[in-house]
Structure formats: structure tokens, C-alpha cells
Design a protein that fits this description.
167 residues, mainly alpha, two-stranded parallel ribbon, two-stranded antiparallel sheet, globular
Amino acid sequence: MGDAALLQCVSRSLTPSTLEDLRHLTRRHKAHDAISLRMVEYLCNNFSKDIPVVTATNQDLHSQYLAAQEQFKRQKFGAFRRQAERWIPVSVTWEDKQLDSSMAQLNFMLFVQRHGLMKFIASNIDHIRRHRRERSSVKPKRGGKRRVLNPCRATPRGRLAVMEIRS
């Protein structure tokens, strides 16, 4: 999908509430803020790999996240804004508000919106935080060279509890 077509698709699909969520997530946070952009990305990338999460579309979140990464590549799908020379900067205006973002970040927020992840995080935030703490305390030992694992071949580890996102 070309840049113009993707931008048009994203602009038609994003809702003002999702843009408000992104605006909240991208501003500087205090330590007490509950949901951050890192937490949303952690849910998609790590939590859903260990504990299968069924989204509002009745699909596995981790497999959908990997499919979106494969479809759009890094330049057009990612939670964080990167350097402007490698990422496509976008300025969004709605209801007298403005947000500077990137094509990748807006596409990621569209993914979050479609799968109802903000509601899921709000209702399961303690479980996600506990998982994050437990996972960060157990770090694998690395030898001389760092291994690069193929994320497509990763299998879920740990408990196989299935969580559903209700819209």
C-alpha cells in the first residue's frame, strides 16, 4: 500500500477519541500515569506472546500484531516516533487540536483502535504490570554473541489463559 493510500485509510478510520488517546500517550508522563505508549506496545509484543489475548475481532492479538508488522514494515507501523528521515511525519488536526506524529504511529493507533486495546488495558492493568515486573526480573543470560530470534517462530510460554476484549 502506498503512502498516500495508507494516509487516506488512516485518516478515514481514526476516531477523535483514538486521537485523544494518542495525544495523551505521547505527552510526557508522570510516574503515576496509568497507561503509557510503552504499556500498549508491551501488551502487543510481550504480554500477548506469553498469555494469549483474544481481541474484539475474535483473533489472537500477538499473531495480528506480527501480521501488521510484516504487512507494513517498520517505516509504516510502530508505536514510537523515530527519526524523521526514516519515518513519515504527519501533522493531524481535529476539533481545533493538533498532534504531530508519524505515519507509523497513526497506523499503530488504528491497530489499537480496531482491536479495542485501550479498554483491555484499562480493565487488566494490574495483571499487565505484574507480568512486566516478573518478566523484567528474569533476564536470560547472554553469551558472547547476542542471538536474534525469528519472531514468527515464537511460541507462547507460561499460562495459557485466554482473555477476551469486550467492546
